[in-house]
Amino acid sequence: MEGGWFPIKDIDDPSVDDIAKFAITRNNKKNNSPLKLQTVVSGESQVVCGIIFRLIIDVSEGEDGDSKTYEAEVYQPPWRDNPLVLNYFKLIN
């Protein structure tokens, strides 16, 4: 179904972790940050021409950094070899 946002059924699916790690890696390169994934807290997806994933993720800053929560939105278009595009990555807590 196109248009609406729906919860990701299996938040523990390894592909969800891959999307979160992609978002963190892109953010780290752009901002020269040392963020590391701790866990994917929740997520939802929207079918458009491709799929948009919106994830709430807990990350740490380096090895001993405090945990912070971010929201990341990643777009997976159906026609690209490297199918992920980071729409945004923002601190929410």
Summarize the structure.
Helices cover 19% and strands 49% of the residues.
Radius of gyration: 13 Å
Order of helices and strands: EHEEEE
Q: Strand content of the residues, in percent?
A: over 45%
SS summary, helix count: 1
Overall body shape: globular
Query: Can you list the strand order of the major beta sheet?
Result: 1-2-3-4-5
Largest pleated sheet: 5 strands, antiparallel
Question: Helix- and strand-based class?
Answer: alpha+beta
Calculate the terminal CA-CA distance, rounded to whole Å: 31 Å
Oligomer: single chain
For the secondary structure, the number of strands is: 5
Contiguous uncertain segments of 5+ residues: none
Instruction: Calculate the mean pLDDT score and round it.
Output: 91
Give the helix proportion (percent range). 10-25%
GO molecular function: cysteine-type endopeptidase inhibitor activity
InterPro entries: Cystatin_dom
Protein name: Cystatin domain
Pfam family, one: SQAPI
Structure description:
The chain is an alpha+beta fold and 93 residues long. Helices cover 19% and strands 49% of the residues. It has 1 helix and 5 strands. Strands 1-2-3-4-5 form a 5-stranded antiparallel sheet. The chain is globular and about 40 Å long. The mean pLDDT is 91.
